Amino acid sequence: MTDDQTLLHIFIVDDHDLFRAGVRGSLPDDIVVVGDASEVEAAVELILERRPDLVLLDVHLPAGGGRAVIEGVHQVDPAMRFLAISASDAPEDVVATIRAGARGYVTKTISAHDLADALRRVAGGDAVFSPQLAGFVLDAFSSIAVKDIDPELDQLTKREREVLQHIARGYTYREVGDQLFISPKTVENHMSSVLRKLQLSNRHQLTRWAHDRKLI
Amino acid sequence: MPTVTLVVVSDHNAEPTTDAEAALLRAVIGYRIVAAVWLAILGVLILAERGTPADRPWRVALTITAVAAWTTVASVISLRDPSRTTTGWFVALDVGGAIGSIVAADWAGTFVFAGGYPLAAVFATLLSRGTVPGMIAAGSLSITAIIRLGTITGATASDTSFVIVYLFAGGAAAWAFSVIRTADRRRAEAEGRLRTEQAERARAEEHAAFASRIHDSVLQTLALIQRDGDDPRRVRQLARRQERELRMTLFGSGAATDEGLREALGAACAEVEEMTGVRASLVMVGDHGGGLEVEALALATREALLNAAKHAGVEEVAVYGEADDEAATVFVRDRGVGFSPAAVGPGRRGIADSIVARMAAVGGSADVSSKPGGGTEVRLAVPWTPT
């Protein structure tokens, strides 16, 4: 195994120069930033050129937001993985980014250690739910009226809801496993399933959730 | 038969874009219909042999039919697509028909029974093409009347008066139209200026309000950070308070509701952060309006947070709240040193009084789970009192 294979290559998309520089400086040595971009068009082009292992993506970007980057890259490379990040965004924007294909969401107040961990997990194919994202998802699914539920997709199982609630309470996957007497791998499976439901479930219902929130 | 060459000049493109234009258009259509009825009545009187009978009565009937048909077509076109009334063929047919309605009298061998109908074409042309084409149309009618005087025998005073009637009525209408249009344009301009001024003023006020808010908050905070820069804890605290304030400014709900659980928990988190420097991050699912239960939950949450900040030895405490129509639950969790609940002496009244008793007073409950080294979680729950 060469050195190169043990390294994780990431790409950063964020319109704040300070943030990009800060992330570069705070990541451990085994995570290498192979490029960054501050706008949608340049980001799509460079990501497709450099093919990082994953992309750290700001939810809020001018001209289309993080969604536009995911959609642009996935047209050519549907396997590219994204971890969404933002300082503070409206829940509907975060959920829209996840629905566009991001594998997780963290806030910018995350510690460097936790960010590195989240990046490795997304690169490994896991779904990374911060407490905030777990809260947003519970909110979104709880708003779907019972009569509109597609039993396959529009409803979280009792177990998935439980897992989400623990994550929203600040538990790590391992801690959730200890609490619920299941393995961390099972927790991860539940979260991947939640992610899949979020991405595939009735578009109309979640759109209405987003719309209703704007009215509040 | 007299012939008249019609010149179509356009100096005005009249789209009924304003209320005044639309009103004028309706008035002209109305006049056209009234005038057609007027012509029909005069024609029917001739056919009924009241007054001068016609030599060729069926030509009178044909004229009435033609005028009725054109009036219908012209009215429909004017209502559906007024821009088509400005086209050359429409004006030519309209004015040609008006001339025809005058000379139809000689063609049928009777007195002029056109009444006010020819003026409908003059008014329509004035409206759709402007003053000059309208007056040319009026002139065409007057010239027709003059030519008639030269060709018919036994011209009456009314035959002579037609020469001036068309020009005078056309001129009067042209003046009236232009007065209405000028007034309307001035009003529209004044309204537009007023709107622009209002929009500019609103923008300026908004900018001033935003600038003063930024000054009161962000700039003040930056000044404090520069002063206290060597105290990392203080800097973090200032940054967090600023973050919360900005978040409220940018994403805060504008709706005026009584303080809900979300807002109350947010305030409790903010207060504890301010007091202790420990970060309290809130995740909230759903929301519910105020009342004693919200107050009790917020105060109990505050106590639990303070306990965690003081004793747990952590930098961050997680708060999770969920509320639906029946009940609310709040979890306050830290990853700190923890303690053995059984070992808590009677001297520590904080949890018992401030949290358990407070929740019990509103029919709720409080549970504390902790173990040494395993962090602490306080669970607060309360059903809403039915209202």
Short structural summary:
The complex is a heterodimer of chains A (216) and B (387). Chain A is of the alpha/beta class and 216 residues long.
Helix content of chain B: 55-70%
Q: What is the CATH class of the largest domain in chain A?
A: Alpha Beta
CATH architecture of the largest domain in chain A: 3-Layer(aba) Sandwich
Count of distinct strands of chain B: 5
Strand content of chain A: 5-15%
Q: Quote the distance from N terminus to C terminus of chain A.
A: 55 Å
Give the total of beta strands of chain A: 6
Q: What is the number of domains of chain B?
A: 2
**CATH homology-level superfamily of the largest domain in chain A:** Response regulator
Strand and helix order of chain A: HEHEHEHEHEHEHHHHH
Q: Could you give a short account of the major beta sheet of chain B?
A: 5 strands, mixed
Determine the mean pLDDT of chain B.
83
Oligomer: heterodimer
Structure description:
The complex is a heterodimer of chains A (216) and B (387). Chain A is of the alpha/beta class and 216 residues long. Chain A has helices at 3-6, 17-26, 40-50, 65-76, 91-100, 112-123, 131-142, 158-168, 173-180, 184-200, 203-215; strands at 8-13, 31-37, 54-58, 81-86, 104-107, 128-129. Chain A is built from eleven helices and six strands. A six-stranded parallel beta sheet of chain A has the order 2-1-3-4-5-6. In chain A, helix 3 (40-50) packs parallel to helix 4. By secondary structure, chain B is α+β, with helices and mostly antiparallel strands. Chain B folds into two domains: 19-193, no CATH class; 253-383, 2-Layer Sandwich (Heat Shock Protein 90), CATH 3.30.565.10. In chain B, strands 1-2-3-5-4 form a five-stranded mixed beta sheet. Chain B is rod-shaped and about 130 Å long. Chain B starts with 18 loop residues before the first helix and ends with a strand. Chain A binds chain B through residues 87-88, 90, 109, 131-132, 134-135, 138-139, 142, 165, 168-171, 216, and chain B through 243, 247, 250-251, 253, 255, 279, 281, 283-286, 318, 320, 322, 324, 331, 333, 335, 377.
